[in-house]
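Appendix C reproduces, verbatim, an entry submitted by the partner laboratory led by Prof. M.T., so that reviewers can inspect both the input and the predicted structure.
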Amino acid sequence: MSVAGVSLRGITLEALDDFARQLKNGESADPALVFFPMHRVERIELDSRNGDIPSVADRFLTKSGRHAIEIFCREVGE
């Protein structure tokens, strides 16, 4: 067994609107912390704007009023 892998805090894309709405309404909502061992990682993509198409982080800011980095890039337990 190897401990190499990727830990991510996040939500499914299908839950983005509901999650953003909860935060905008002041409700408590926390993303899940998930570990993927390296043998299960096929690729990792950067979320970025593509011309007029906003990034997922841009959409999240518009819907929730909060920056994705402040929600998804916290230490566990914060």
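The chain has one domain: 5-41+50-72. Additional entries are available on request from the coordinating office.
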